[in-house]
Design a protein that fits this description.
The chain is mainly alpha-helical and about 325 residues long. The chain has helices spanning about 30-55, 65-75, 85-100, 105-120, 125-145, 150-165, 165-180, 185-195, 205-215, 220-235, 240-250, 255-270, 270-285, 290-300, 305-320, and strands at about 1-10, 15-25. Helix 5 packs antiparallel against helix 6 (about 150-165).
Length: about 325
């Protein structure tokens, strides 16, 4: 038998932050390397979460309790889908975790704000997006360890899987969520969106319509209309796609994903001037080149040959605007 002692220390103070030990047979070394890497990754994210929580409460009322922090986070999110609003909500979720590091609702809320950043790459640079994806994945995994039957946690895990280019894993997570709560609107909507990455774009619109029936508030309708427009665009129904994307942008004029797909759709039907105008508007709001954002969001999302054949022509349209 061999023994491996593991420890994580503060690089500046050399203080121990965590220690662990593994024992194994020499023939199991390959499997153990994978397990140790996963364990260290999990611990690092937990430590990062604790440090972020500690920073989040700096300057806040020391007497705040978990429920108050969660209420403040939810109130912030009602302001819409914008970077500064998500950042404010994230701060309150972290503050809640500073009060109770095992609060599943706070962990899921934190994961949701990470997913917003992952899905809007123009809100931050590539490293920030990657860090958010990792942190969100760890937060929701911790939540599911605490409450395996938490439907919303399964749904957000599906969103993060899908954004990370793992549509099969995402589909399984959405199935789990809907098995636990068949009326969970977000699971229906995002499962429909994920179906497009699996080459089944015809499933998207019915799923979106179901989501809108279950959630009549306007808060997410911009997202649902975008999902439908994206799927119709993949299926070659460009006029229908434009109508849905217009509805998405009416509700959220700064929605980058809808803007990018609208550029492609307008270009496809010969409305080149409008496509160029939208591209210029996008660049003013989000300095990164649209093609770069498009590649991050959609080209790498799936290896499905059906999907890739559908999406690549859209990328080509956007890349020349």
């Amino acid at each position: 038998m061999l023994r491996v002692n593991l420890r994580i220390s503060d690089a500046k103070t050399a203080d121990y932050l965590w220690a662990g030990r593994q024992e194994f047979r020499s023939e199991d070394i390959t499997q153990l390397q994978t397990e140790m890497t996963r364990q260290i990754s999990r611990v690092l994210h937990v430590l990062l979460l604790h440090e972020a929580s500690r920073r989040a409460v700096a300057g806040l009322d020391a007497g705040l309790e978990v429920d108050e922090c969660l209420a403040c986070a939810e109130a912030a999110l009602k302001g819409g889908m914008r970077a500064e609003i998500s950042a404010e909500a994230q701060r309150w979720f972290l503050a809640a975790l500073a009060c109770d590091s095992t609060n599943a609702e706070a962990l899921v809320g934190l994961a949701a704000t990470c997913q917003y950043l992952v899905s809007n790459p123009w809100w931050g640079d590539t490293r920030t997006r990657a860090a958010a994806s990792d942190l969100g994945g760890e937060a929701v995994a911790l939540a599911l360890e605490l409450e395996p039957t938490y439907a919303r946690a399964n749904s957000i895990q599906g969103m993060l899987y899908s954004a990370a280019g793992q549509p099969q894993e995402a589909a399984h997570a959405f199935e789990q969520a809907l098995a636990l709560d068949e009326r969970l609107a977000t699971a229906h909507g995002f499962a429909g969106y994920n179906a497009a990455f699996l080459g089944r774009a015809w499933e998207t619109q019915p799923a979106v319509e179901r989501a809108m029936q279950l959630d009549s508030s306007d808060r997410r309708h911009s997202i649902w209309y975008f999902f439908g427009g994206f799927a119709e665009l993949l299926l070659g129904r460009t006029e229908d796609a434009i109508a849905l994307l217009d509805k998405s942008l009416e509700r959220n004029p700064g929605y980058g994903s809808a803007q990018l797909c609208s550029m492609a759709a307008l270009s496809l039907i010969g409305r080149h001037g409008e496509a160029v105008s939208m591209a210029e508007s996008f660049r003013r709001r989000y300095p990164d080149y649209p093609a770069h954002a498009f590649a991050q969001l959609w080209l790498s999302r799936s290896e499905s040959p059906v999907y890739r054949a559908q999406v690549y022509p859209l990328f080509e349209r956007i890349s020349v605007l």
